[in-house]
Specification:
By secondary structure, this protein is an alpha/beta fold. It contains six helices and three strands, in the order βαααβααβα.
């Protein structure tokens, strides 16, 4: 199970994630796809999994098309093993108040699936 708030949903395709692509190329054994949530969702073939993602609607990186949660949503909807709960939170960016508002829900989500 996974729970996350404001991670790169598609680092391979985001310019922001692209800053690190040069480093990825330095090690041929390192595959960028093994850390890209969208790619992993497309290829996932394990047990059924629930995923909860919170995204602040006012996050400037969202507006700049750097986070691409829609790519993750599309990948999950195309995989019957994944159930994505993508929550776009109005009035929040990615700062302290965003994290403190929703972190308890993420802890509860993780505890429900780990314990």
């Amino acid at each position: 199970q996974d729970s996350l708030g404001r991670r790169l949903s598609s680092g391979i395709n985001a310019e922001y994630g692209g800053e690190n692509k040069g480093a990825w190329k330095l090690n041929p054994a390192y595959s960028v796809t093994q850390y890209d949530a969208t790619y992993l969702a497309k290829e996932y073939d394990g047990p059924k999994m629930e995923i909860m993602v919170d995204q602040g609607e006012e996050d400037p990186y969202l507006a700049d098309k750097q986070l691409l949660p829609e790519n993750l949503s599309n990948a999950c909807s195309g995989n019957k093993l994944l159930n994505l709960n993508l929550r776009i939170q109005p009035g929040y960016d990615h700062g302290y108040y965003f994290i403190t508002t929703f972190i308890e829900e993420h802890f509860t989500f993780m505890a429900r699936h780990i314990c």
